[in-house]
Design a protein that fits this description.
Blueprint: H1 2-18, E1 19-20, E2 23-24, H2 29-35, H3 40-48, H4 52-56, E3 61-66, H5 68-72, H6 76-83, H7 87-96, E4 98-100, E5 113-114, E6 133-134, E7 137-139, E8 147-154, E9 157-159, E10 162-164, E11 167-171, E12 174-175, E13 184-186, E14 189-194, H8 206-211, H9 221-227, H10 234-240, E15 246-251, H11 253-256, H12 261-268, H13 271-279, E16 282-284, E17 298-300, E18 306-310, E19 317-321, E20 324-335, E21 338-343, H14 354-361, H15 363-371, H16 374-379, E22 386-391, H17 393-398, H18 411-420, E23 444-447, E24 454-460, E25 463-468, E26 471-482, E27 485-490, H19 501-506, H20 512-520, H21 524-527, H22 538-542, H23 551-554, H24 558-562, H25 601-605, H26 617-622, E28 668-673, H27 675-682, H28 685-691, H29 694-702, E29 705-707, E30 718-723, E31 729-736, E32 739-744, E33 747-758, E34 761-766, H30 788-807
Parallel strand pairs: 3-14, 15-21, 22-27, 28-34
Antiparallel strand pairs: 1-2, 3-4, 5-6, 7-8, 8-11, 9-10, 11-12, 13-14, 15-16, 17-18, 18-19, 19-20, 20-21, 23-24, 24-25, 25-26, 26-27, 28-29, 30-31, 31-32, 32-33, 33-34
Length: 808
């Protein structure tokens, strides 16, 4: 019997050496590190720490190893700390990244799981979901048995087509790598790559850490002094107990110094109020890391009131608890009972009035208020019901080069801008109450002090936006309570457009495809406001954003269904198998390897771009005007790249040149198809034919461009005829502000966003191109353009009307 058991163990070991979970095994954990691309630094550290025997031994373990990119992206000081570790300290750090006695796969991870410390016997087996609990604490192999907190999150992104996103996994707030660099099975365990470098868990509890911070320049003496006036320490015990998991937001001394001494003295004498404030500062029973939360995600503080996180793109992470919004200025400090985040405000304590809050948030807006009328100033000191959208100081920099927008001397302009940021009394809005994934179609309106003009407020793409005076601004910090109202912090100045039409279009990631094609068909220069220094879209400098891929191939199931038969020879040379739509299926053959298709967007994006299927050499080669008449640059789609990366007028025969002068701009209204509209059009038979014919595709875009400015909100309901840039008549039908369509022949399109202003016009976003079958054969050889003299006249009339508007 013993002999049979030995044979069985041998067979199992042979199986593990060759195949585990469908993945070929290439050795033990150390060999995995040494043989897998991206782990060379961590493998070197294991050897230097003299831990080779541990990771070659048959003992089961789970290793979280940072990848080379994560190490190289560390600031020099932090890299130097790792490189300067003694052998003993380095070994302790690497053991900190290791869970002994199990093979933890991501498939077994749930969000915030928990294995009780008493379940030590669990470590001898592979963890199963049945053995998991909420708030997973896994103890590492280091000398202290430090806890690791593991999270599983569904990351959703919102588009006009719905929400989508991957499942991501985190350990101590650091993302576990996606794809082949996680769940790497070895003969003696599992390796997970990390996209960041974990900091060791502090042995202190959350409250103990703020009393004696480790390696932090932050100090919290004023907060701990204030809490010492509590009569009961129940909540402090929650933060001090190693057995109670918590997320603790703590204001540093700089934050506390913002509070007037008289207000602090009042708090010291009110233990009940102090208790409520302390409860606003922590989340019980959860360790919440900033990387693991989504924009607008909610939780519950110790008082049972909502806490909301905000992660606006390019800004800090913010937390709003009990009426106070604070920035997390240093976060993700892992302690023995959870995580600590340092914030710049005392949460739960409202003591400023509107004017005092503005002084703290925006120096330039406060200076602008000082230039305002007494009526505007008085509106801010009403006893209640005051709501102000406060632009950051950086918002004023955006309009610094707008010559006609002098906010120092133009009293009329100052008054208009101020009033656009202030709502009518008792017309408040709580941003956090907006539906999280509602989109523009669920927008809300509020009346401003400026001629009762409306602000439009809505959530879209995991952000909150406010649009007023034809300018769209991102809401950075909402719902800041004051003693007489509410403040919302925004990133742009309402009422003064600061981007011209091309830059306005390309600034929206969901319009990038349209911008890309508009410049390729020679329209970018024509729509440029020449009164400013020419700009380039950020993606022309830094490359396409990560989520620029085709909506057709990524967000729907259309590709798999349309391309399902492409593996059969009889279909490979017919549409869509011979098109870029099916290029990623590996069924349509060598489509993307052919020179003439190398620059099609799907071919550039397939398999991440830059592979043998997607040669990128043609893109840079054909972008040089000198190669315009050389194969493959003289054929579609490469012929659309001519001059696209130059700062001057394109050499393409189809470029329309510039409209306007450095003194007077041509104004346009552009109905901009979103990227999905372009994608869907490109995979139709007719779209495929039109987009191969540059003048014909240009004609379709001209059908969407109206000379002059048309603000949809300003026109009445009914039918409106528009004579477009190509001389054709397009009908706009407005039933109400949520039902607007444009028509040409039998084609129609919904206006899904309206009235976003540029320095030289206005854009409305639509969901379809206006294509009719006659476009395949119509004569598009002569472009019926409005003459420059007429543009000059239109521009002069507009400027005169604009000036009169502010002289009233």
């Amino acid at each position: 019997m013993e002999r049979c058991g030995a044979i069985l163990r041998l067979l199992i070991s042979i199986y593990l050496v060759n195949y585990v979970n469908g993945q070929l095994i290439s050795g033990n954990v150390l060999q995995i590190l040494q043989r897998t691309t991206g782990f060379s630094k961590f493998a070197q550290l294991v050897v230097r720490a003299q831990l080779t025997r541990l990771y070659e031994s048959p003992t089961s373990l789970t290793l979280f190893a940072f990848n080379d990119t994560a190490y190289n992206n560390l600031p020099y000081k932090e890299r130097n700390v790792i490189d300067s570790y003694s052998v003993k300290d380095l070994a302790d750090y690497i053991k900190f990244c290791t869970i002994p006695g199990n093979r933890l796969q991501t498939s077994a991870i749930l969000d915030n799981q928990y294995v009780r410390s008493s379940d030590a016997n669990v470590y001898g087996t592979r963890l199963t979901s049945g053995e998991m609990r909420d708030n997973l604490q896994l103890r590492s192999m280091d000398s202290n048995g430090d806890k690791l907190f593991i999270n599983r999150k569904y990351r959703s992104f919102t588009t006009s087509s719905g929400s989508f996103g991957p499942v991501k996994f985190y350990v101590n707030g650091v993302e576990i790598s996606e794809g082949t660099n996680r769940d790497i099975s070895a003969t003696n365990g599992v390796v997970h790559g990390l996209n960041g470098v974990m900091r060791k868990t502090s042995q202190s509890t959350a409250y103990g850490w703020i009393q004696e911070p480790e390696d932090s320049i932050q100090r919290f003496t004023q907060f701990t002094d204030l809490m010492s006036y509590l009569h009961t320490f129940e909540n402090i015990n929650d933060l001090s107990s190693p057995d109670k998991i918590t997320t603790f937001f703590v204001p540093n001394d700089n934050a506390m110094q913002k509070i007037p001494l008289t207000q602090l003295n009042r708090l010291r004498n009110d233990p009940m109020e102090l208790q409520r404030i302390l409860q606003a500062h922590y989340i019980p029973n959860r360790a919440v890391f900033t990387n693991c939360i989504s924009h607008n995600e909610g939780a519950t503080n110790a008082k049972g009131l909502p806490i909301t996180f905000r992660k606006p793109s390019g800004y800090n992470v913010y937390v709003n608890s009990d009426g106070v919004s604070a920035a997390i200025i240093e976060g993700n400090i892992t302690v023995s009972n959870g995580v600590v985040h340092i914030v710049d405000q005392l949460l739960g304590f409202v003591y400023n009035n509107i004017r005092e809050q503005i002084q703290q948030e925006s120096t330039k807006f406060e200076q602008m208020i000082n230039l305002g009328t007494e009526t505007v100033k008085n509106s801010l000191v009403q006893p209640s019901g005051v709501t102000v959208f406060v632009p950051l100081d950086s918002a004023f920099q955006k309009v610094a080069n707008i010559r006609w927008a002098n906010l120092n001397s133009n009293q009329t302009l100052v008054d208009m801008v101020l009033r656009l940021h202030i709502l009518q009394p008792n017309n408040m809005i709580t941003i956090s109450s907006l539906p999280g994934l509602s989109g523009y179609e669920s927008r809300m309106y509020r009346q401003t002090l400026y001629s009762n003009e409306r602000l439009t407020i809505y959530n879209e793409r995991n952000e909150t936006w406010v649009q007023g005076g034809n300018v769209k601004a991102r809401v950075i910090r909402p719902d800041i309570k004051t003693v007489n109202g509410m403040v919302h912090i925004i990133d742009s100045l309402l009422g003064i457009p600061y981007l011209d039409l091309p830059m306005l279009i390309c600034s929206d990631v969901w319009l990038l495809r349209t911008y890309d094609y508009m410049r390729r068909v020679g329209l970018k220069n024509y729509l440029t406001d020449r009164r400013f220094t020419a700009e380039k879209c950020s993606f022309e400098i830094y490359g396409y954003p990560q989520n620029y891929g085709s909506a057709v191939t990524q967000n729907t199931g259309s590709q798999s269904s349309q391309c399902s038969n492409c593996y059969m020879p009889q279909y490979q040379n017919s549409y869509p198998c011979n098109s870029a739509l099916c290029a990623n299926t590996n069924t349509g053959g060598d489509y993307c390897k052919q020179q003439q298709y190398a620059n099609q967007q799907v071919c550039m994006q397939c398999n991440g771009g830059g592979t043998s299927q997607c040669p990128s050499t043609y893109i840079s080669y054909c972008s040089n005007p000198a190669n315009a008449n050389v194969s493959p640059c003289n054929a579609y789609p490469c012929n659309m790249l001519n001059g696209m990366n130059t700062g001057s007028q394109s050499t393409s025969a189809y470029d329309l040149g510039f409209c306007g002068t450095t003194a007077v701009a041509c104004d346009f209204t552009v109905f901009v198809p979103n990227s999905s509209a372009i994608d869907y059009f490109s995979v139709t038979n007719n779209g495929y034919r039109v987009m191969r014919d540059t003048p014909r595709f240009q004609w379709l875009f001209k059908r969407l461009i109206l000379p002059g400015r048309l603000y949809i909100e300003k026109i009445g309901n009914g039918n409106h005829q528009m004579k477009m840039m190509n001389g054709e008549l397009v009908t706009l039908t407005k039933n109400n502000d949520r039902d607007v369509r444009i028509y040409f022949g039998g084609a129609s399109s919904n206006v899904i966003h309206m009235d976003e202003g540029a320095t030289n016009g206005v854009i409305h976003i639509i969901d379809q191109l206006l294509f009719v079958n006659e476009d395949l054969t119509r004569d598009v050889s002569s472009a019926r353009l409005v003459t420059f003299s007429l543009w000059l006249l239109l521009g002069t009339i507009f400027i005169a009307r604009w000036l009169l508007r502010f002289m009233r």
